[in-house]
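REQUEST ID: PR-0412
SUBMITTED BY: lab tech R.K.
PRIORITY: routine
TASK: structure prediction, single protein chain
INPUT:
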Amino acid sequence: MNDKQPIKDIQNDPFPAGDDNCPNLSEAERLREEVKQLSAMVRTDELTGLFNYRYFYQALGLEMERTRRSGQSVCLIMCDLDHFKDINDVHGHEVGNLVLSHVADLVRKTIRRLDIPCRYGGEEFAIILPDTKLRHGVRFANRLRLLVENSPVKSGGMILRIQASFGVDIYKRSGNFTEREFVESVDYFLYQAKSEGRNRVCHAPYAKKDEVPVDETDALIGEIDKDE
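STATUS: complete
OUTPUT:
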């Protein structure tokens, strides 16, 4: 399991570096570090180290506004662990927390530097992919789904195999809905994945030019095998 790595913040540093007018530079550096730590506590989920629910909506709003300015679509992925309640009921919340941390590590392993991974709540994760077309977002979700499926959690001599369901959609400049309406759209496809049997990715319809080859899943499985 990978160590937690810091993830990017879309906000500016409140203390610009190189302020030569500061009479006590060491004190300024200490205050800068304290502000960073407090800011991280406010926006970060304590268990997983991913961004939290509150920060998710702030980041999503900014990315949707960026899409309206630039015309580059933003992709949103919602991920929900399958049968997670059974894990908590049978093995206890400590093991459940271990599973959540494990999945968060897999998310960190998969994302790009510009992506924004969040714990939406409970066993649900949200990943914002700026400047991403639908077919690329679906490919990302399938890769993460296979990685979760092929990365069991080991605890106290037990091996727990976990699976997850995904919903994917994009926001375009022509879109005329709010952040919560965007989330509801993606949640619709997540629930569709659950109702169709779980451990799958459901998404908005492709435009004709964005259709993914039929053998995409086979290619993704090959990529997972090469990584292991």
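NOTES: The two ends are 13 Å apart (CA to CA).
REVIEWED BY: pending
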